[in-house]
């Protein structure tokens, strides 16, 4: 099993969960596998902490769950954000890894940064907007494609896979950029795009989503991210001056 | 995933299950992982087939479940009977294997005989009398010893482990960006940096090298690289116009 300090870096993020019992089931799986950090984004039922399926340690996890209004806030301190999907062959704009291989990558990253794993709502899974915050997606290989798992079972299987093998030796590198930093890069890029006429002001969200997805797909470490952010801010500053001179 | 013929030899046997929802959850996990043979021994609620948690294929599995009065009858056609236990250190009279290793043995045996995996009741697990029918026991390694899993989640994790070693389906991804494309991005970025005053014209090569290294470290696929190149060219175009207007 993972050392406590490494599992402390894992955040289980449940987005738009409808059934409070599933939040309780997720908390129970977390208690079984030693993962304590539960984050909930826009739950259907704000009284979810009373879910009867959670007892003992699981109830404590549910009690301590942090509630957020947006995925962006829920993953702000995470250097890797992984979305889960039941759909293997839709037009995905993210790299997709099957759980066994995904777990290896997640464990490596957990050696140096916080990792969020997102689970979407029972009916529709993660939305396209949710997915823009993800670096890549994981899929639990089921016998029947397009057949989604129960939410609590999907959480249990994912955490089982993450703890079933010993952690690989950590690799000393720069830590990956936090989601907050990537978000600031995205904002600066979008402003530069608007100022340069690439996009129209208050235009469609398609470009915004495209840019955010692209920035998240790129493997930024914190150093590169800071450098690019500085570059973009300078470009934005110059473009703003030109506009004001007009 | 296992071939259908091999998974046809697996029987999931739920003994003295109290909550019908857990039978539904077990059926759903079975439908996810392509295991169809559910056997139920002395369920607390004989109306379990109406468990609302089961839909589609899972409902069909529940509908087809065979009900037995004794473990002996439920495993009569099986050459290997494996009991599951949450308790790792009680006075076990059976060999105990952790799930990853247990799955290897089960898969080997499934090549030549029917295999039953027994799950006990939610509160007490399998009784000593139930265990007398088992060849050996399996335990899902959880972080907290003596902390039992939810029944439906335990079934899901066990079936996941049995089917996880399947060859992964190939996932189509975009090819990585060519060096030529990365070089064009670097050039466009450098021009934008000069036009915006981030660098001075004909300045040191340090910034140029820094930008080139950064662009190469980012894991661009060809699609993202083309998108970013288009964005940068628009920004450069706008910055050039501003300069010429002066």
Plain-language structure description:
2 copies of one chain form a homodimer. Chain A has 246 residues and is an alpha/beta fold. Chain A has helices at residues 4-7, 20-33, 57-63, 71-74, 99-110, 128-131, 151-163, 179-195, 205-217, 222-245; strands at 10-15, 37-41, 66-68, 80-84, 96-98, 115-119, 136-139. Chain A has a 7-stranded parallel β-sheet. Chain A is elongated and about 65 Å long. The N and C termini of chain A lie far apart (63 Å). The model of chain A is unreliable at 167-172 (pLDDT under 50). At the A-B interface, helix 2, strand 5, helix 5, helix 7 and helix 8 of A face helix 2, helix 7, helix 8, helix 9 and helix 10 of B.
Give a brief rundown of this model.
Chain A has 246 residues and is an alpha/beta fold.
Strand content of chain A: 5-15%
How many β-strand stretches of chain A? 7
SSE sequence of chain A, one letter per element = HEHEHEHEEHEHEHHHH
The number of helical runs of chain A is 10
Structural category of chain A: alpha/beta
Identify the quaternary structure here.
Answer: homodimer
Shape annotation of chain A: elongated
Largest sheet of chain A: 7 strands, parallel
Main attributes?
homodimer, alpha/beta, seven-stranded parallel sheet, 246 residues, 13% strand
Compile the SSE list and pairings.
The structure is a homodimer of 246-residue chains.
Chain A: H1 4-7, E1 10-15, H2 20-33, E2 37-41, H3 57-63, E3 66-68, H4 71-74, E4 80-84, E5 96-98, H5 99-110, E6 115-119, H6 128-131, E7 136-139, H7 151-163, H8 179-195, H9 205-217, H10 222-245
Parallel strand pairs in A: 1-2, 1-6, 2-3, 4-6, 4-7, 5-7
